[in-house]
Amino acid sequence: MSLANLIARETQRFLETHPKSAAQAKALDAHWLFGAPFHWMKDWAAPVVIIAEDGEGAVLTDIDDNTYDDFCLGDTPGMFGHGRPEIARAVAEQARRGATFMLPTQESAEVGALLAERFGLPFWQTTLSASDANRALIRWARAVTGKSVIVVFDGCYHGMVEDCLVELRHGRTRPDAGLIGQVFDMTRTTRAVSFNDIGALEAALAQGDVAAVLAEPAMTNCGMILPEPNFWKRAQALATKAGALLILDETHTLSTGPGGATKTWGLAPDALVIGKAIAGGFPAAVWGVSAELGEKITAAKTSGGRSGIGTTLAGNAMGIAAIGATLREVATAEAYDVMLAGAEALVAKLRAVIAKRALPWCVVHVGARAEIVFAPEPPRNAAEMRPALAQGELNHALHLYLINRGVLIAPFHMMMLVCPATTTQQIDRLVAAVDSFAEEFARESA
């Protein structure tokens, strides 16, 4: 059976088991651009959008009463599971007392102390998203250094931040092909370098005009790419020598451990972004800075509230309550122990399937996050990853096959998350579905 025939068969199977979702999709088309409240919601392999009914722990149910073992978890915001009662209680209680005041609540001091203790940076600010946090830190970095350029890594994703939507092609920084409606040439103030290439990073910094290096500790959006040994130690030394700040975006790598990759790997950034999961799925993010950078930022802010950075809803009372509940009750060391053990088991079982089926695939793994990569060895950078990501038909077929067997993984690539509620049985069902697909794929490839 060819992949095209497999996709056609699985498409028909999906439509037969999702009649209510198919009908509701037509109603969505009437008034929502792209047929959904946000166009990314249509980027799944399903022929029509799945309409969610509810989620609890690691299980999602749609309006057709199909249940799914959810390894996507909202593409990370639900990293600790859906419907957490701790978050629901904190947000509901604060909503009853008032959602937002443009004033701090009494809990704000405790939440600041919890952030400082957990992530090792003394001063913090809140935003509504990691995009806002990255955008703010880029602006503050330029303000305090007097330099205009930022360095990012090819294949990165730091939210909807125009400065970061560039790519490296033929040794030159180019605007990202997907950047829509941008009139300013971001390559004038952003340089992209290849991940794990210390020589390229040193050359980018040597020009003396770099305000900050903005990076994920491990790349996760263009496929998961791990740093080579000592890469970050050498990168930080180069940034310090060049007078540039190091900003680490832990939006995805928070899955590494209670203090993210920063604490787990002993990194020492000047600034840190924590997004998505820090409030248990409630829209909130935070950024923190060292004492030295905090002093410089304070000195740079010269008048009232006007800095052009932030929104009136940043630091809202419900968001602070959700962050506090997450840090105290949800993202605990005990929860991470369960998540990390589950991910280790998942990775071992997936690698066994790949070996048994002699597939030219590998599994890359950071903490509670794992990813199947359609390459025999883990890529070192985005250029090496792109051929694996270009296998669109294979990617589509496997995603749709898993959906039809009650398994959800991240729709954009082959990423899976294990949450505290994920069971051994759910892991085994995911592995069995991959194995079943691999058997059919091997027959098709023979």
TrEMBL record:
UniProtKB keywords: Isomerase, Pyridoxal phosphate
Entry EC number(s): 5.4.3.8
Top-rank taxon, per record: Bacteria
Keyword flag Isomerase: yes
InterPro entries: Aminotrans_3 (IPR005814), PyrdxlP-dep_Trfase (IPR015424), PyrdxlP-dep_Trfase_major (IPR015421), PyrdxlP-dep_Trfase_small (IPR015422)
Gene Ontology molecular function terms on file: glutamate-1-semialdehyde 2,1-aminomutase activity; pyridoxal phosphate binding; transaminase activity
Family annotation (Pfam families): Aminotran_3
Cofactor: pyridoxal 5'-phosphate
Family: Belongs to the class-III pyridoxal-phosphate-dependent aminotransferase family.
Protein name, entry field: Glutamate-1-semialdehyde 2,1-aminomutase 2
Gene: hemL2
